[in-house]
Amino acid sequence: MPERPEPKAKAGVIKVGAKLIGWATDAKLREKGASGGLVTALLAAALKKGLVDKVLTLKKISEFEAVPVLTSEVEEVLQSGGSMHSVPVNLARYLPEGIGEQRIALPAKPCDARAVIERAKRNAVDLEKTFLIGLNCGGSIHPETTRKMLKTVYRLDPEEISGEEIVKGKLIFFTKDGKEHAISIDELEEKGLGRRENCRYCSVKIPINADLACGNWGVTGAFAGQGTFVEVRTEKGAKLLRNALEAGFAKVEPAEEKGIRVREKINRIMLKLSEKNRQEIFSPIEAKQGPERLKYFQKALENCIHCGACKAVCPVCTCGEDSKCTSYTSREDSYKISLFHLVRFLHLSDSCLGCGQCEDVCPAEIPLTRLYQCFATPVREAFDYMPGMSAQTPPYFALKLEKECGCQHHGLEKAGLEESSCAKEPEREGKREGQRQGQGGCC
Amino acid sequence: MDPSNKNPAPGLSWEPKIVMFCCNWCSYAGADGAGIGRFQQSPSMRIIRVMCSSRVDPVHVFNAFLEGADAVLITGCHLGDCHYINGNEKTLVKFKFMQMLLKELGLEEERLQLNWISASEGEKFASVVNEATEKIRKLGPSPLKPEGVI
Amino acid sequence: MIEEKVYSSICPGCGLGCGLYIREKVEPTGDKTKPELSVDFRKNAPVNAGKLCRFGMNLPIYYGKIPNSKVKGKKSSLKEAVAAAAKALKAASKENMAFLSVGMSTNEEQLAFSALAKTFSCPVETGMEIYAAFPETVHKALGYGTGLEEIEASKQVFLFIDPYVSYPLVLRRVLKAKRKGAKVTAVGPKSLPLADENLSLEPAEYGKSLAPTQASILLSDLHPYSDPTQIKAILELAETSGAKLLFLRPFVNSKGATRLAKHTKQRSFEKLLKALEAGEIKTLFCLDSDLSELSLDPKRVKKALSNLDTLIVQASRSSPLTEFADIVIGAEPFYQKKGSVLNAEGRLLKTGGDSILGFKALAELAKALGKEGLDFAQVQKKAFSSFGLSETDEFKPEKAKPISCGNFELRAGFEKKEKPKNTKKEEQTQKAHFSYNFTPFMWQGLEDDCNFVELNIRLVQKLGLSKGGSLNLKTPDGETQMRFKVSALAEGVVLSEKKIKGLVLPRDEVELSR
Ligand SMILES: Cc1cc2nc3c(=O)[nH]c(=O)nc-3n(C[C@H](O)[C@H](O)[C@H](O)COP(=O)(O)OP(=O)(O)OC[C@H]3O[C@@H](n4cnc5c(N)ncnc54)[C@H](O)[C@@H]3O)c2cc1C
Ligand code: SF4
Ligand code: SF4
Ligand code: SF4
Ligand code: SF4
């Protein structure tokens, strides 16, 4: 690794909206890190300087396995660098439940950050005390698929792998003998391998909902491959960066114009591809109408063994054990479609992130994320609401008592259910009278 | 399964079965009004009285369909007339979501309806019931009806 | 601050041993013996890719039952319990002793238990009398393992089990085979949604009705209530066609336990019970095997056990047996154990913990009875080498082997029970064949959401049952009321996932009424 120039930038460049290139000052961290080791440096510095009480990060077990751990050990954080594309986990569920005293920082792919925000809306997380270090995300792979790819396409023994990387649309594996093996993700996906299906149509690639948005897109010039592009999204994010700089853990430099353009361009291309994949995956389902459509859902769910894993793993569900979807469902019922699924389809129609966790853990191989998205897409379009991107209340709960003009319809308007509702006002009193009379007559 | 028709006599044909949720303060009284006024009404209804239309949870609606209802009608007070200030507005939100869900699921739109019927609108009550029954008769049995239920 | 420990463990619910993490939270101020547990998905696990069935998802409840060491009904320390057990064993007469371990402990514990039993020249019973029904030449074939991956590679899958209920993590493999074009034939009373063909056949009909090839796989199971006639028919089918065969197992270490027991003159639970009832067994030592949970008639077990002089139980979880045992050696829960199990596919899996409390208790007992020096590492090595393996490797299941058993006669079959007498008027009752659909919950004594038996719609209509109502089941041993579920079953069949008193054998006859 070449020696780095002393950064020209001072802490003053760190403000909301700034786009920077950052890196860990520790060479080992840079080596270990996915791009510049900045994320790990930020997490470690936050813990070290007491900006947070704990860090939620991944503890690596093997090339294809890592477990989320909540730690207060700086050492453990320093161990955690590097991007693990074969660990399709969602970190939101590992944050301690409820509004606690602890301040916690975590790395967050767009789906992690979205899940944390949705959980905050359900009072399961205190966003004020949660520091989201966003990671750009092109997608993740189920480790079972990774092993299969290695065996059938790369023709490598999974035990021989010493590392992996995604560069320019290619999934690269390094073997212990020091060789590199690259195959394009498109090619893998044509074979039904590659990224998880939901990642192929994921519509957030840069986590602009997090406190910082980090990634390797847009790292240009001398820093290519050795710096982390970081966009400061919130004041909390700026704090994280300043803290790491003060602690001497990280350094930053303003990003080059060219880099900024490159990042935007790749993002656009990726989103376009996602849209194309979405079309491909969903248009055959869209084409089914009426009874044929119902059959599709019934058929898709017929193998469900009622394990409950899809609900247990779903990061936006905060019900816990006493939930509507399970309380009224009994295995004794031989219904055409299970009440459990109908309730979940409804409850997730305004909040499913498409994070793929449910599908990952379904023992019956049901394409669950695809099914949930079938119900979530029309809601998202009708209400122009994207779950997890802001603090906006989900439309299902948008209705609040509002009495600005003596009419209570503002909530409905907000929820997109009514256009104008004050016209009915004059009739009202009369109706109330009638109602009371009717009532008297009946008792 | 309804015990009254678990063993249909051969040749006994399907009649629409409609579950109707009526609000205590308006449509339930409306149903009374319809009876007192002797409006012609179809016998296909199963009326369930609720204290407010917003008491109707999606679980109730789904359950009605899964148990064999051919349609579900939710009725409540006109907007602005809710006995509990804005319960019916909540009903409207829930209804909108259920409607979108059932449409996505591939169930005919007519099988779930929301109507505002006040206590004095006995005639309206009867016509809502009759129209719904006719529509459902044309559509046929609900595809969600379990095996062995008519 | 709350400390969390993550165990990379396996599910003890059935012979698959699905991989998972157990997250254990201990509040320093709280009760240290009652940690807060949760299951987490280990997607890198080759057996199950992180997926779990309803049982695996319920593990926190299962592990919530922590056993206390006890001597003569009084809470004691582990050490006291071991000492009391040693004393009781020394005083016992070796003629009427029995050692039972069905396969819910590690290979290492199993071997230590064998060593202990050996000091009395006693075998370790596994409840698998079915082995006694087969000539020794066939035992090997019964124990062959086959990786689940081989299901996916098959052109045709024959299911003699219901994978929706019995070994649920097999389901996805069959579905994957199907997506690749395999044909699925289900043999049994229930129509399975994933099957292309559902056949309700007697074992005698397998030969002429089923035509597997070398590219087929037969999936069945081998458990304490398996019907030897059916198992024989399946072995013959595999042998004549050259199809692959996998016998699934009900306990996480069923395979390890039966292989290590080496003893082939096993008694069934029924025979053990009879011996207990006749007073032929006076001292019984159960290792992680609760007879009253395993038996289909818990009340009878309790009565039979009262004939014992001494009941010693080493358990990793409290259960009815730990309630009425004389001596309870309370070991660590399964996820905390260090050790190995051999799953149904023949994968040697690590149990994932770091405690050898249970092993040590057994080693100490063996020592007290004259068998010195049971060292964990050495015992482990011995277990591995008896499987022909040198280390645990979850990525290497056994390769399918061709079955060749030759012609053989069964030594024993199931005794048939008397038929129930009709008491109610003919038109109100219906006779039906009764079968169990065994689930992990049934074997492990954990409550499941299944307070019902399954019937087909025609039987429901004939009996005039209405939804929400209940059904009367009558057997020679008495009557039971159950709720019911309408399922796609063959004519005249009742299926249950819950133990029903007096109903034991496959295809028992019951009398049904409203
Ligand atoms: C699955 C995945 C896909 C990505 N795709 C892109 C992309 O297409 N374009 C792009 O610009 N950047 C992408 N990134 C981000 C990029 O790889 C780097 O993480 C980022 O540039 C920060 O680099 P760093 O050296 O500062 O991070 P490091 O210092 O290496 O820290 C990485 C942090 O990410 C955490 N982490 C690792 N794997 C995961 C995971 N699977 N889920 C959640 N957290 C994880 C680690 O625990 C660690 O805290 C992706 C990251 C991941 C995890
Ligand atoms: S769902 Fe989106 S953010 Fe999450 S892992 Fe997949 S591509 Fe990344
Ligand atoms: S339903 Fe599935 S895809 Fe949607 S948020 Fe929940 S786990 Fe993620
Ligand atoms: S994870 Fe799959 S099998 Fe389990 S309840 Fe959900 S849909 Fe059913
Ligand atoms: S299939 Fe067996 S091992 Fe797997 S989770 Fe279920 S009970 Fe446990």
Notes on the structure:
Chain A is 38% helix and 15% strand. Chain A contains 17 helices and eleven strands. Chain A has an eight-stranded mixed β-sheet with strand order 3-2-4-5-9-10-1-11. A three-stranded antiparallel β-sheet of chain A has the order 6-7-8. Chain A is globular and about 70 Å long. In chain B, 38% of the residues lie in helices and 15% in strands. Chain B contains four helices and four strands, in the order E-H-E-H-E-H-E-H. Chain B has a four-stranded parallel β-sheet with strand order 2-1-3-4, sandwiched between helices. In chain B, helix 1 (27-36) crosses helix 4 (122-139). Chain C has 514 residues and is of the alpha/beta class. Chain C has four domains: 3-63, Immunoglobulin-like, CATH 2.60.40.4210; 70-127 and 267-386, Rossmann fold; 131-248, Dimethylsulfoxide Reductase, domain 2, CATH 3.40.228.10; 429-513, Barwin-like endoglucanases (Beta Barrel), CATH 2.40.40. In chain C, 28% of the residues lie in helices and 22% in strands. In chain C, the strands form five sheets. In chain C, strands 5-4-15-14-13-6-7 form a seven-stranded mixed β-sheet. The N and C termini of chain C lie far apart (58 Å). Chains in contact: A-B, A-C, B-C. Chains A and B meet through helix 10, helix 13, helix 15 and helix 17 of A and helix 1, helix 2 and helix 3 of B. The complex binds flavin-adenine dinucleotide and iron/sulfur cluster (4 copies). The site of one iron/sulfur cluster (SF4) has 11 residues of chain A, from helix 4 and helix 7. One iron/sulfur cluster binds at residues 304-310, 361-364, 366, 368 of chain A.
In brief:
With 443 residues, chain A is of the alpha/beta class. Chain A is built from 17 helices and eleven strands. Chain C contains 19 helices and 23 strands.
